[in-house]
Design the sequence.
């Protein structure tokens, strides 16, 4: 691909242009995630059409505008489509692809065995082919799982969905940066996950000790919830994070167990919008990363829906798992 390069990412502008042509779009709305907003100019100069910038949030493909006004199409930058999320306007997805791929160190081969399952976030998905080729040449059997309806591409991991897991693989290798996705994957498999960072060539692992340390922190929130008489239920207005059925189930169970349940509808979930309500404890039905990755930034104790079930004695602690959206 010979696309728009920004930092270590490349965007397939030619593909976007050809899709715009097919649609016959004259007016575009463009939506950029936080990290790319300062690079708006670089995107604007690529297109001849009239462009309006979406000024609201863009946490993922789960976070699409309700409508695009007078515009013909939305260009959503940075993420792949969530296939089971439907909107009534056309969208062109323009994910960023990492252009760095360091030579695989010998140590990685030594740490792999048997059938190897590969995983990646959208920025590194295109590198799975190359990794498959390298591993196959080394004699490994490689397998890449298909996800459920929330997942567009084989092997693709979201912070809210690990349905591409391959339970019967002997080794699990995550290609990418960051800790949250491989940790979530490791919980969803209850197995160790090796991490290869193709940008730096570093190898790392999420193991049982890391899972235990993480669970200890979650346990503190669950204990706190047991003692709260009032519990908020956070319900997102974002289309791809809105889980009304889950919210209703936990409301009913919470009330049966004698808790006062307070539903909270939110456009934006942040420290102020929750902590100012002074509830002490709230269950987050929106993006799981808010309760599992970001909870340290809140004074309110944030739980996942399953964690409330544990706090209320409806589920066993041993059944703790990552919160996922399907
Ligand atoms: S819900 Fe969270 S993890 Fe899932 S796609 Fe949206 S921002 Fe990403």
Sequence:
């Amino acid at each position: 691909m010979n696309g728009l390069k920004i930092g270590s990412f490349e965007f397939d502008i030619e593909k976007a242009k050809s899709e715009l042509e097919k649609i016959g779009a004259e007016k575009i709305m463009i939506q950029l995630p936080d990290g790319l907003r300062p690079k708006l100019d670089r995107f604007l100069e690529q297109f001849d059409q009239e462009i309006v910038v979406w000024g609201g949030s863009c946490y993922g493909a789960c976070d699409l505008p309700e409508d695009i006004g007078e515009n013909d199409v939305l260009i959503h930058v940075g993420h792949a489509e969530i296939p089971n999320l439907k909107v009534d306007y056309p969208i062109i997805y323009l994910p960023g692809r990492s252009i760095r791929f360091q030579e695989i160190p010998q140590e990685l081969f030594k740490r792999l065995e048997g059938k190897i399952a590969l995983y990646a976030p959208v920025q590194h998905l295109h590198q799975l082919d190359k990794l498959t080729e390298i591993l196959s040449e080394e004699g490994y059997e490689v397998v890449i799982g298909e996800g459920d309806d929330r997942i567009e591409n084989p092997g693709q991991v979201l912070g809210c969905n690990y349905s591409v897991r391959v339970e019967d693989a002997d080794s699990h290798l995550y290609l990418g940066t960051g800790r949250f996705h491989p940790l979530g994957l490791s919980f969803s498999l209850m197995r160790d996950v090796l991490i290869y960072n193709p940008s730096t060539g570093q190898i790392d692992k999420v193991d049982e000790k890391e899972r235990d340390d993480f669970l200890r922190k979650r346990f503190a929130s669950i204990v706190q919830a047991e003692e709260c008489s009032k519990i908020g239920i956070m319900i997102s207005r974002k289309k791809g994070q809105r889980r009304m059925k889950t919210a209703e189930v936990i409301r009913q169970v919470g009330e049966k167990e004698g808790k006062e349940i307070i539903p909270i509808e939110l456009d934006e979930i942040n420290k102020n919008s929750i902590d100012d309500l002074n509830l002490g404890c709230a269950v987050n039905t929106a993006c799981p990363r808010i309760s599992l990755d970001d909870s340290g930034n809140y004074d309110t104790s944030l739980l996942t829906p399953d964690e409330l079930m544990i706090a209320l004695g409806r589920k066993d602690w041993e059944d703790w798992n990552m919160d996922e959206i399907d």
